[in-house]
Design a protein that fits this description.
With 374 residues, the chain is an alpha/beta fold. The protein has 15 helices and 11 strands. Strands 1-10-9-8-11-3-2 form a 7-stranded mixed beta sheet, sandwiched between helices. Strands 6-5-4-7 form a 4-stranded parallel beta sheet, with helices on both faces. The longest helix has 23 residues. The two termini are 14 Å apart. The N terminus and C terminus are likely disordered.
Length: 374
Amino acid sequence: MSDNASSLRTLQRFTRPGARTWRCEPAPPEVRGFHSSLPDYASTPLTELPFLAAEFGVGRVFVKDESCRLGLPAFKALGASWAVHRTLAERARNCTEPGPVTLVTATDGNHGRAVARMARRLGQHADVFVPQGVHPQAVAAIIAEQAKVTEVSGSYDEAVRLAAEAAAAPDAVLVQDTAWAGYEQIPGWIVEGYSTLCAEIDEQLTAEGIVEGPDLVSIPVGVGSLAQAVVTHYRSRPSAGRAPALLAVEPEAAACVLESLTRGEPVSVTTGETTMAGLNCGTPSSIAWPYLLGGLDAAVAVADADSARAAGDLAALGVSSGPCGAAALAGLRAVLTGVGAEERRTALGLGPSSAVVLLSTEGTAANPHAATSH
C-alpha cells in the first residue's frame, strides 16, 4: 500500500480547537522525589532525530525513549511504583494486622510486570490477569517476577473485571491502571507516577535550549492514563506560558478514546487484534476522560502496518521502540502527511521552527509481537 493510501485509511481523527486554553491542577511535586530515591532510577533518554524533523518540516524532533525504565522495558514502572508505594503506606496506616498483601491487576503486559516487580521487591504477592492475545513471552516475563498469572480467554476489559473480583479477597488490593465509578484513588496514583516522565522532558529540553517546552507531544493511548498525565502536566501551567498541542494515538482496532471524543461522551468499543497489545483497550479510564476531552488537541487511529513501519524507522535511527511506542511516530506521520496535511499542521500550530516530542513508551523487549508479526 502506498504511503498516501495508508494515510487516507488511517485518518480516523478528532480535533478540538480550544484544548490549549483548558486548565487543571498540577501533579503533586513529591512524586519525582520518590522516584529519585529508588536505587535504579535514572532519567530516560530524550533523543533528537533530525531526519524526522526534515521529513515533517519542523525545527526539531525528539523521542522520549522508555525502553529501559527502572530496569523494565516500558514506562509503566513509574506509575506502578508510586501507586504501590502509596497503597502500602495507606494500608500500614489503616490496618492493625501486619503481613504481606496480594497486589491484583489486569494487564496487556507492561503494567502487570511492573506491579509484579514491585511486589517481589517489597515482599508482597502479585496476582496478574492477562487477556487473550498477550504474547507468551510477555506472560513468561510476568511469571519470572514470581507472580501468579491467570490467563483470561477474553478481552482486556474482561480481564479487568475478573481482577477486580479477585481483589475482593482478604489481604488483596487491586492496583489497576484504569478507573471507573467507585474505583479511582489508586488509578489516580498511577497517573501521578507518570508525571516524572514529563518533568524529565522539561529538564532535557531546557538543556537543549528549548526553555518554553515543546510545540507538540504525540502520546500513545490505551485507556488514557498516560495521556491524562501529559495533559495534567502541560495544562496546569500558567496561561501566559506556551501550551503545546497534544496528539493522542490509538490502534484502529481499539480506538476507544477517539470514538469517545467523537461522540462527546465516554463509550466502550469492541476491540480487535492488534500488534499494539498495550493499547488494546476498549474503555477509557473514568478519571482520564475529563482531561482527554478538555486538554487533547487531536486524536488519530493508526493501523498495525503504520506502527510497524514507524518502529522500523526508529530502529534505523538507533531507538528501540515496540509497536505501542512507535505509535507516536505513526500518528504524527498520519496527521502531517497526505491529503489535508497543511490544514492539520496549521490547526496544531506547527511551523518550520517547531519542536516535537514523541513518547516512545516501550522498547522492543516489552512486546515480543514486534519480532514475530508480519
